[in-house]
Amino acid sequence: MIELFNIIVLILSSILFLYFYVKSVSPAELEKKIGEIAYPKCKTYRIIAGAFEGITVINYVIYFFYPLSLGIPLVFPWPWLFSILIGLLILIPSFYLMIIGMKDAGRETLEPRKEHTLYGGIYETIRHPQAIGEAFVWFPIALFLNSPFLALYSFLWIPIFYIMCLAEERDLVVRYGTPYLEYRERVGFLIPKRAK
Question: Model-level pTM?
Fold first, then answer.
């Protein structure tokens, strides 16, 4: 019973994370409807999204103790230490992208602010470093827990973060206009652009 309940909560939390995060990256669009209160409202949406993301991490851990019988092996066929090493190889660059992205985005990472300007730093190379890093962090969690099911489930985070990036892009065009369109031409979406 715990196994099934955990999977249901995992799926619902993942969907609700996507829903609230998409809402949190749309302050300029929301401002057209409700005024400047849109920015604090989007901060609240971001906090709610973060809570659901935290719940999914808890669901991953609970799955380790209460796996659902799905016909998938409970553990990988290699030693657990190998899973941990692969996880670290993915985690280090993923965390690097997230941390550098958070540093260069500043307070905007958690709190959309109307007066914020376009970012510099790593954002001059790639437009969504935090999303790339965060999308791949789920694989190390699954590997540390030595779970093939969680590794497969982690693939769902790639389209989730892709959808979030698309939603954010739409709002950034509304928010910054032509400067953002020029920035998009110059800087790669998820992969750095080659210099022309």
Answer: 0.90
Candidates 3.30.450, 3.40.50, 1.20.120, 3.30.70; CATH matching 2-69+77-186: 1.20.120
- Cα(176)–Cα(174) distance, rounded to whole angstroms? 6
Domain ranges of the chain: 2-69+77-186
Q: What is the C-alpha separation between 37 and 59, in angstroms, rounded?
A: 33
Angstrom CA distances, 183 to 27, 127, 147, 188, stand at 19, 9, 40, 9
Please report the pLDDT score of residue 190 as a whole number: 85
> How would you class 162 by CB atoms within 10 Å of its CB: exposed for 0-12, middle for 13-18, buried for 19 or more?
middle
d(CA 37, CA 132): 29
Determine the Cα–Cα distance for residues 76 and 35; give it in Å rounded to an integer.
52
Tell me the pLDDT tens digit for each residue of 44-58.
999 999 999 999 999
